[in-house]
Amino acid sequence: MVTLSLTGFYASLLGLLYIGLSINIIRVRLSAQIGIGTNGNKTLAKRVRIHGNFSEYVPLALILLGCYEINGASAFMLHMLGGALLLARLSHAIGLSKSIGTSKPRQIGVLTTFIVLLVLSIENIRLFVFA
User: Fold this and answer.
1) Structural domain tally of the chain?
2) What is the number of other CB atoms lying within 10 angstroms of the CB of residue 32?
3) Of 118, 109, 18, the residue nearest 68 (C-alpha)
4) pTM of the entire structure?
5) Alpha helices, H only, the chain
């Protein structure tokens, strides 16, 4: 029986982060009475972008993590990559919430997310080719 318990664990932690990012949007929408779009509200636009960036990168990373787990990756590697992804997305959200320009936490978040995607992609290809 194939299980994805470690991928499920990191997907769940990232799911909680996603809910938190969503709540940040809802709070601004309610206080500014903006139902759709951003209506020029810079705080809302920033929070929508943080949420959107998360939505763009995390699903692919979790698919790759799940494939890696199914193909027999070690628990150590899965924890390293899942933990790095979680910290990367937290860092990105913190960095972008502080400044819409460049910031160290944002740069670390983006770079780490790319590294996780790259490692998972290469590892899944390696496991396919050499299986």
Assistant:
1) 1
2) 14
3) 118
4) 0.93
5) 5-32, 42-70, 75-98, 104-129
Domain containing 73 equals 5-129
- Report pLDDT digits (tens) over 81-109: 999 999 999 999 999 888 777 889 999 99
Copy the structure tokens of residue 91.
Answer: 């860092």
CATH number for 118? 1.20.120.550
Q: How far apart are CA 128 and CA 121, in angstroms?
A: 11
Two tokens, residue 95: 């960095």
CA atoms within 13 A on the CB side of 99: 8
State the amino acid at position 43 in one-letter form: T
Distance CA 93, CA 50 (A): 6
